[in-house]
Amino acid sequence: MEEVQAAQPQSLGELPAEYSVPPKIDSEVEVLHEKVTKQVIKEGHGQKPSKYSTCFIHYRGWSESTQHKFEDTWQEQRPIEMVLGKEKKEMTGLAIGVANMKDGERALLRVGWELGYGEEGSFSFPNVPPRADLVYEVELIGFDETKEGKARSDMTVEERIGAADRRKMDGNVLFQQEKLEEAMQQYEMAIAYMGDDFMFQLFGKYRDMALAVKNPCHLNMAACLIKLNRYEEAIGQCTIVLTEDENNVKALFRRGKSRAALGQTDAAKEDFQKARKYAPEDKAIARELRLLAEHDKVVYQKQKELYKGIFGPRPEPRSSNMRSGNLLILIWQWLLSLFYGLVNLFKRKSPKSD
């Protein structure tokens, strides 16, 4: 199965909202290290990763003293990879937290400056001053147990595409089982194998091979998000595909559905009409266009009734008897004025007495 099929929306969980400041959590504080604490936001499942596991995470980071956010991977719609035990020095505290999480768990971590960006702060992130304690909201999407700690950068092109394809297939199975959150975790990990830095290096058949896995993962993510009523995120996933393939019918169709659900009817109609151009016999596209036309008709009728109520009913035309009466009055007034005019003229022309 190359892609899962979109289905009717249903209300399930949501990705965390975009916080401008760290979220306030009431759960118990767990001390993981002298300089690292954890509070669970959402429980995970399964085992925790071991040393040299390749972990795929989303996170937001803030400087605790200033409350300034310095990084947010959710905005980029792409998780990052971290090999436990081989992480960058400034991510030591973050790695300690991730090592104590389960698949799908989301947590709030507090990390002392000694296990973060240290004495000097961050040159790349000016919002991280010297000796800045850090706050992370982090989600462990999933991990691969690789005893040798083989990172993506050490894999061949074929290995990375193959690993991504396996994740995609696992995601499809979970989707069919209606395990949407878990399916999205698999798709996100598949996408993480093919980040921008990797895709930029590919051309010819290797790029085609990578896109044949990457684009379906984005489309499948969109299918999950539509079912979860998370339409803005679904639009983002479809748009990523359309930047590579502007005529992709499934991307146009799913973006159109998402836009229609958000009330963006003109933009939705544009997507559906373009999709119909490349798939003129597709009944689903025709149905969506028909629904939009019916929606427009209903809106027009409502507006018509509204305007009628604002401006009120048109005045009733006067009866023919009233018109006739008015005409007789005008004629009578004209005859009187004519009579008095003749009288005055006669007086002016008569001879004066001595």
Describe this protein's structure.
With 354 residues, the chain is of the alpha+beta class. It has a domain at 23-147: Chitinase A, domain 3, CATH 3.10.50.40. It has eleven helices and seven strands. Strands 1, 2, 3, 4, 5, 6 and 7 form a seven-stranded antiparallel β-sheet that branches. A hairpin with a 2-residue loop joins strand 1 (30-33) and strand 2. InterPro entries: AIP/AIPL1/TTC9, PPIase_dom_sf, PPIase_FKBP_dom, TPR-like_helical_dom_sf, TPR_2, TPR_rpt. Keywords: Isomerase, Membrane, Repeat, Rotamase, TPR repeat, Transmembrane, Transmembrane helix. Residues 52-144 form the PPIase FKBP-type domain.
Helix content: 40-55%
CATH-assigned fold name of the domain at 23-147 = Chitinase A, domain 3
Radius of gyration using CA atoms only:
36 Å
Strand content: 5-15%
> What gap, in angstroms, lies between the N and C termini?
127 Å
Main sheet overview: 7 strands, antiparallel
Q: Care to count the β-strands?
A: 7
Shape: elongated
List the secondary-structure elements in sequence, H or E.
EEEEHEHEEHHHHHHHHH
Q: Can you name the CATH architecture of the domain at 23-147?
A: Roll
User: Could you tell me the mean pLDDT?
Assistant: 83
Secondary-structure-based class equals alpha+beta
Class of the domain at 23-147 in CATH?
Alpha Beta
Unreliable residue stretches:
5-17
Q: Count of helical segments?
A: 11
